[in-house]
């Protein structure tokens, strides 16, 4: 089999593992999750799963890395879009105005894995990496928008840090206090962005 | 025994339960916590614990209610202090510049219980109640500070919501990305408060 085929097959297996893990996490939660529960959701050979991973934490850290990469990489923002469009995309991904079922399930999975980070260095490293990626991405968007005149002349690093805490805190407060689809904290975020970042 | 004695004894028992639960949570984490593990940390009669609680969630919700009350009630802010002193106290409690071991342990306990809120309505109710209490407290501080001229003429509800998300997000980002005592996100919070809230 050609090398490309190997890569495709590995990434397909990896995707199937990620999906099985999300499904198992949603059914059982982190506390009650076992490799067996993930295997039960896995459509491929279960021995493949056991071959790759000894513990649920090894598996979950791979899944987390994958999920955070999707969420945080620069590719998440269209390089041809205007800075205004890019910041809008960033805000919609970080703190959507409404949570559909799929997005809610993804955010809950991340939320639950995050609760392990303070007591598990491997998790903490993944979240620190994602935070740095988001920070870099957002600073670049802000710098470009200031250059083009789309944004006011704010301090990019300070405004980035503020926006990251604001979106993180808004989502956390929503998930722990409400089960509605409408995310009230988004109004406050929009007001902040309109009144301090966007140029008139 | 007089009614007062009963109240004292109940509150003493309650405090001992809370302390045993914190200790057990710090040793075992939520996922591995059992009533037995809490009983092992409990210095009083274990039957007392089993008499009061059937499940660990019943017990944890009481502990959570107690912890959030301590954290969020109006009593947390000295009514005789100036609005500037009150907001300083509020910020120091919500997002301290450095986390000593005791504060870190308390925040981690709350953080871990919070991860249950999206999937457990009783937890969610407690966090929603605490969020409302904090919101009320902060709006009152801001309104008074605007009246006295300590603060600029900001929108109290909007600024409160922004500060609650900013402190929550700052603490979450710190706990999931770092194990240092210095909380970097506090700098951003201070800059925000100085540049938009405090009157010159």
Describe the fold and architecture.
Chain A has 200 residues and is an all-alpha fold. The first copy, chain A, has two domains: 1-54, Homeodomain-like (Arc Repressor Mutant, subunit A, Orthogonal Bundle), CATH 1.10.10.60; 55-197, Tetracycline Repressor, domain 2. Helices cover 73% and strands 0% of the residues of chain A. Chain A has nine helices and no strands. Chain A has helices at 3-28, 35-41, 46-52, 56-72, 83-94, 101-114, 121-148, 156-177, 185-197. Chain A is elongated and about 60 Å long. Chain A starts with a helix and ends with a helix. The model of chain A has no long low-confidence stretch (mean pLDDT 87). At the A-B interface, helix 6, helix 7, helix 8 and helix 9 of A face helix 6, helix 7, helix 8 and helix 9 of B.
Question: What is this entry, summarized?
Answer:
Chain A is mainly alpha-helical and 200 residues long.
SSE order of chain A:
HHHHHHHHH
Mean pLDDT of chain A: 87
Helix proportion of chain A = over 70%
Could you give the distance between the termini of chain A? 58 Å
Under CATH, the homologous superfamily of the largest domain in chain A reads Tetracycline Repressor, domain 2
In CATH, the architecture of the largest domain in chain A is: Orthogonal Bundle
Tell me, what's the shape of chain A? elongated
Supply Rg of chain A.
19 Å
The CATH class label of the largest domain in chain A is: Mainly Alpha
* Total strand segments of chain A: 0
Any low-confidence stretches of chain A, pLDDT <50, length ≥5? none
The number of domains of chain A: 2
CATH fold call of the largest domain in chain A: Tetracycline Repressor, domain 2
For the biggest sheet of chain A, the summary is:
none
What structural class should be given to the helix and strand makeup of chain A? mainly alpha
Assembly level: homodimer
Strand content of chain A: under 5%
Number of helices of chain A: 9
Largest contact between chains = A-B, 39 and 39 residues
């Amino acid at each position: 089999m050609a090398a490309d085929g190997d890569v495709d097959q590995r990434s397909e297996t990896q995707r199937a593992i990620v999906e099985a893990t999300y499904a198992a996490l949603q059914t059982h939660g982190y506390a009650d999750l076992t490799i067996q529960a993930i295997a039960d959701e896995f459509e491929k050979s279960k021995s493949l799963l056991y071959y790759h991973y000894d513990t649920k934490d090894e598996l979950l850290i791979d899944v987390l890395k994958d999920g955070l990469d999707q969420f945080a990489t620069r590719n998440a923002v269209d390089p041809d879009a205007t800075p205004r469009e890019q910041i809008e995309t960033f805000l919609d991904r970080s703190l959507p105005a409404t949570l559909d079922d799929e997005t809610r399930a993804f955010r809950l999975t991340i939320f639950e894995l995050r609760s392990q980070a303070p007591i598990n260095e491997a998790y903490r490293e993944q979240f620190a990496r994602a935070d740095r990626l988001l920070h870099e991405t957002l600073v670049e968007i802000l710098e470009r928008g200031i250059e083009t005149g789309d944004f006011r002349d704010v301090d990019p690093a300070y405004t980035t840090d503020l926006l990251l805490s604001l979106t993180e805190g808004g989502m956390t407060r929503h998930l722990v206090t409400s089960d509605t689809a409408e995310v009230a904290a988004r109004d406050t975020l929009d007001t902040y962005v309109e009144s301090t970042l966007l140029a008139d």
